[in-house]
Backbone:
């Protein structure tokens, strides 16, 4: 079908991409409570039925957009120094959680999950932050010989900046170099 401009309908994948790009920007503009499927569709320039074709609610759209952006924003170049890699990851994590629209979406979903079981189940279906940290954490785990599991070590790494930011503190006061040093030292002291 062609409209009056001579252009055809946008391909489904381009409409899907437009929705994913629009949702976290809209969240920043209006907040989670005011975010609607209709508003998402309007911001993306697609019909509401197009949005409902892939997602059943705003949390699902927001989560997918945030997870996709997190993969890019939390990916860090690897070096020969695992401690430096940990620091680079922490820098990316702090930026993601405190300055990124995708991070704002993730924080909004975390808040919503505290009283919405469906959003909590959505967030627990995939550990976006844990996945993003796995390579740098595993490198330190291997070299340290720690008895901590990947999940335990990841919680030690992500927990402090995550709590700091989600509790409303200034992200600029986080010393990622110090956190990286403490993380490596802790894993080295918790040998098998």
Residues:
């Amino acid at each position: 079908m062609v409209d009056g401009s001579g252009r055809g309908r946008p391909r489904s994948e381009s409409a899907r991409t437009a929705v994913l790009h629009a949702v976290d920007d809209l969240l920043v503009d209006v907040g989670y409570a005011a975010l609607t499927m209709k508003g998402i569709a309007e911001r993306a320039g697609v019909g509401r039925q197009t949005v409902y074709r892939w997602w059943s609610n705003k949390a699902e759209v927001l989560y997918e957009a945030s997870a996709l952006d997190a993969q890019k924003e939390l990916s860090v170049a690897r070096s020969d120094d695992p401690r430096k890699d940990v620091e680079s990851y922490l820098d990316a994590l702090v930026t993601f959680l405190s300055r990124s629209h995708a991070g704002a979406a993730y924080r909004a979903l975390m808040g919503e999950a505290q009283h919405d079981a469906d959003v909590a189940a959505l967030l627990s279906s995939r550990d976006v932050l844990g996945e993003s940290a796995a390579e740098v954490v595993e490198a330190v785990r291997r070299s340290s010989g720690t008895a901590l599991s990947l999940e335990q070590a990841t919680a030690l790494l992500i927990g402090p900046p995550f709590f700091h930011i989600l509790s409303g503190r200034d992200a600029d006061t986080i010393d990622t170099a110090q956190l990286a040093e403490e993380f490596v030292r802790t894993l080295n002291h918790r040998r098998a």
Summary: The radius of gyration is 19 Å. The mean pLDDT is 92. The first helix runs from residue 12 to 30.
